[in-house]
Design a protein that fits this description.
Layout (H helix, E strand, L loop, with lengths): L7 E7 L4 E7 L3 E7 L7 E7 L9 E6 L5 E8 L6 H5 L10 E6 L3 E6 L4 E9 L5 E7 L5 E6 L26 E2 L2 H5 L4 E2 L15 H5 L5 E3 L25 H19 L3 E14 L3 E12 L4 E12 L7 E2 L10 E8 L2 H18 L4 E8 L3 H8 L3 E6 L5 H10 L7 E4 L4 E2 L14 E3 L2 E5 L14 E3 L7 E4 H7 L14 H11 L3 E3 L2 E7 L12
Parallel strand pairs: 12-17, 13-18, 19-20, 19-22, 20-21, 24-28, 25-29
Antiparallel strand pairs: 1-10, 2-9, 2-11, 3-4, 5-8, 6-7, 6-9, 14-15, 15-16, 16-17, 22-27, 23-29, 25-26
Length: about 525
Amino acid sequence: MYRRFIPWRTAATLPSKKLYLIIWFLFAISTSWFYIQSNVKPEATKQQVQQDHFQLAHINYIVDVPFVGAIEVHHWREVCVKSISSLVQFPQYPLYPNLQQTVTLSETFSLRFKGENSGHRVSGHIIPLSNGFYKFGVESIAPLQLWIASDLKPTEELLGNPNNTKSALNYTVDLEHLDSIALETVFSNCSYYPSYQQKRDYKKCEGATRGTYFTKTYPKDGSWISDCPAWRGSYCLGNDVVDQRVVDEIIEMFMKSLEKAYHSKYSLEKIIGIEEKEDKQRGSRYLLELVLIDNPTKSKLRVLNYFFKFKNKSTLCIPARLALRMDTVINIVITVSAQKVWILHFIRDLAQVIRDSNDQNVNVIIANYGNDSASLEYELKKSKKVIPLTGRFHKTYAIQKAVSSIREKDSIVFLLDLHLRMPSNILESHTIQGVLAYSPIVFRLSECAGPGTREHPSKGFFQKDGFGIFSIYKSDWDAFGGMNVKDFKHSWGGEDWDMADRVLNSGIEIERLMLPGFYHFYHTHSGMWDQP
């Protein structure tokens, strides 16, 4: 059912200077009125009217303009978004429209767009011949937003993602770390061989379905903010939260031990986060991320370290095999088949992660079917390697080929997907050589859904049974044998479970966490796996 919106007009007294006109056709309506005084900067007021359910079909709009020129019209197909903010978060917006047109203007012009699940942007310059009073009119049966501005910064007024997630907290990544030697003089070392991860022979799919356990987090994070259908059951649930009594007990143990060794030198300023992995037979493993105050100097220090508490013990110890290395090179591996636009989205998103995390030890390796490899290498520039492949798309072979190009056994292999929105903490280390692999759990967005905003929570589910996003040391990759290229060739699915079984059989534990702000975009499979 379509609803026709009443046409509106905006009148403005324009100075004779270049102005910028941008019209978005979206799945929510937001109209704006501007009154611009002659020869001064415009001051805008905004009124937004939002509708929850729209289908975009035919769009007809008319804008009266006092000059002859041209405008740019950009089209995005299959965007299936329902608000301004969700279009802005669409991965291919605004850089990669499906179609670009240059339209010549007359004093009055009209354009029609046909088709569902599409978005359109019209942009251009308005250069009045003289100061005066002009009218602009827009008529549409579909939602739209109009911007008129004297510069190219209208997006400053758009609603953004609140990003109410763990990664949005005030992480003190620039703080000096409390020396590990200082901690080792306080806490004794202890063995770490969890009872649930004894080396064994998992049968087919048994390890993937029964051999991994979820980690609890503190404080409660944004992994619970979603719109998930009830029939999905546990796939709707975010990370379990560490009990407050446990948090208080662990922090008290930590600070008492520090006080005993250093006599009022340190005090606790902030708990950034705590992760708990319970071993019902032996005790619990904790990852503590804290900010301490060095009282004599008033400087701040960051603690990021694994600890273990045995059952019926009142002290913490440092697991001997769980030493974090902050300078390890991470080799990100992706496989692609004729999806150049998604590659560019991925690189842009990853670049933002690297800027936010300030992690420069990152390489990208792309196993590439069907794209112009020379063109990709030019666009991706340094620190990124493109491995050209021919023939029918063979995912496991492509991954294995890419990983085989990594020579440094003490570096990390991180398998990722193209169609992701990644949080800034995606590269935080949960991978430890010879001990831990890491498979963060992505929130798989439903068709037409986008990352969560103030207007629309994320709609979809956590893909808790998937292991396609996977981080492990290269030496451990070689030890378990890598991808099964023989049994998984040209079809989709199952190769990640097979890999997880063999990783667990090798004695490596797989760490599993729901990451707030980590999304997989819905997309068609056209052009993938040799599908038309």
